[in-house]
Amino acid sequence: MLRTLHSIPALIASLLLVLVALTGSVLSVFPAFERAGATSASGVDVATLAGRVSARLPGVETLVRQPSGTIVAYHMVGSEQRASVIDPASGEAVAAYRPSATQRWLKNLHRKLLLDDPGRVATGVGAAFMLFIVLSGLMLFARRMGGWKLLLGRVRGNTLQRLHNESARPALAGLVLSAATGLVMSLATFGLIPEGGDADPFLDLRPSGAARMALAQMAVLQSVDVSRLAQLKLASPDDPSDVIELETADGAGVVDPATGTWLAYRALDGWQRLHATVRMLHTGEGLWWLGLVLGASSLAVPLLAATGFLLWLRRRQSLPRLANNAPRRDADTLLLIGSETHTTWGFATALHAALTRAGLRVHAAPMNDIETPHDGVRRLLVLTATYGDGEAPESARQFLPRLARLAAGTGVAFAVLGFGDRQFPHFCGYAHQVHDALAATGLEALGETGTVDRQSEPEFRQWCKWLGETLGVALDIRYQPLLPRTTALELVSRIDYGADPQTLTAVLRFAPRGPARGWRTWLGLPRLPKFETGDLLGVVPPGGASPRYYSLVSAASDGVAEICVRRQPGGICSGYLTGLSPGAAIQAFVRPHESFRPAAGATPLILIGAGTGIGPLIGFIRHNSARRPMHLYFGARSAEDGFLYRDELDGFVDDCRLRTLTTAFSRSADRAYVQDRLLADAGRLRASIVQGAQVMVCGGRQMAEGVAHAWDRILEGSGLSVAQLRTQRRYVEDVY
């Protein structure tokens, strides 16, 4: 619900907010420019200033101090009124005062859209929308990060999500301040909150009538520093009944020109001080540096609007379209879905269709719609994402509280499948909470909580296979994800490892296909999509509907897309790729994998890979021109046909791109796994971690689990654990 409340006002008001934000950003520069051109008047009182100016400009009527500190004198020259910028030190006019027409036009556009009252109403409503959007966005961001204490942590998610959140985070405080002060100013404009002060507190006051005192000798004016001056209106020399009107930052009053003392004075009340402060905070007039900060914050609004719209559009495109959704009262199977961005609904739709084809009566609904199952229900299946680090997604936030209020179930079996990202310490944490809560109600668990990492289709299909076998039905899963646009790539070289053609491993290098490649090079255009080592190359085999992902060894700057592929028995995509000959073409796309990157700096890297998992690791070593300390632990079945990149690695050790190379071969005479080598070096590795080293693991899931267990043993007694290192982004994995 909160996401909807955040998105809808943003969509409605986006164009207005972008316009107001951009004009506000431009206006924020003017106070800084004006402050830079102002002449300092430190140590000068108003009496001295008025005396100097009146001596140089006999026709002076009013002195105004701008928020920038510039002193402007309005004076008569003959029958013409002029405005001049004053040098406070001498009282001389140094330039004509000409307010910027551009600034005036921008202010009118910013404040009222050049439309007077209708425009003021629109911008006031826009300020209210902005304040609500920013505060609701802040709450969503805190949920995503795992709590308020983690707001400054690493932002995770896909590229669009990170761009939206990372651009919002530094701008949040400025946008809240701009929106709140703008709303207060709008409310005051229309009289919805008091402005303070009396309408005319000094009406009918008359001077003593004696001869007028020199301005420089007036005690009241001597007591006010020029830095506190707002406006000084001098008494007309042609009107004996006229008085001097003085406005300062603290109050306003009337001065007797004959005695130089107050006839009346009133300090600013609370409302007047509030509005003065609000105006200063909103405009930056008087706080030029704050104006620049707010202007910079406002520059984020167009980017936030664009990325927010694209995220909303992506969620709309992934909305579920369920066919043959059985009424709840007729269903024998309830399928509940917890999703934040509707991605989980795509998997749920495929499962719903497969269960329906198998003859089950399935009703699918959001998890928030949980009700006590009726007597005909035999199965409860839950597919839920985890938001952030263990939080409930949007459509499941009410599930656990409502479940606690329902009657205990009997005769109903349940299964839970969680969707998450292993880069979070509490991977699929919410799914485990749901499983435990359902078990506590008395329902029978069909099995342990299933998990899917980063929308992995193979993992989803594997769980569905288990579910079908457990239920005794054949499930025909027809899941088809939305794919990005692909690029045609041509195989330019391959190196094969292994004597058995059924299990060989190939290092494949691709480049853009066809004659266009030469033209793109000649024109200086990038030959490949932008990617870095460790990103994923998605390949859709001919006749296939779903991609398979392979870690990229190379970066786009290398001019090729290099991957390592091991042929799997019955593997459609691996068989297709390892069967290619140079000159053959594939359709592929790149999926960023920013979570699997070496941390910035010169701290040591401990690289751990097995089999084709060496791919991105050797890519990191290749690009280690700074000779950062890198240590590689590599495992394979045998040195004869499984030692990928052997000669290249030896060369890297010689030129110090790689400090140490440690190998483990499970089918050699000295049989060992990579985790055995880690445990043998436990002391050195523990010391490296204490000194700030980062661990990067790439390979199969079973290997990764064994490596994680080994590291927990290595870290015993150090006060650290793998879970803590993951939270600190010092233990990252690329697991398949």
From TrEMBL:
EC primary class: oxidoreductase
**Limits of the Flavodoxin-like domain:** 333-468
In terms of superkingdom, the source organism counts as Bacteria
Residue span(s) of domain FAD-binding FR-type: 484-599
Any one cellular component term from GO for this entry? cytosol
* Gene Ontology MF, one: flavin adenine dinucleotide binding
Query: Looking at the keywords, is Coiled coil present?
Result: no
Record-annotated membrane-spanning stretches? 121-142, 171-193, 287-313
The yes or no answer to whether the keyword Flavoprotein is present is yes
> Which keywords label this protein?
Flavoprotein, FMN, Membrane, Transmembrane, Transmembrane helix
Q: This chain belongs to which protein, by name?
A: NADPH--hemoprotein reductase
**Originating species:** Variovorax paradoxus B4
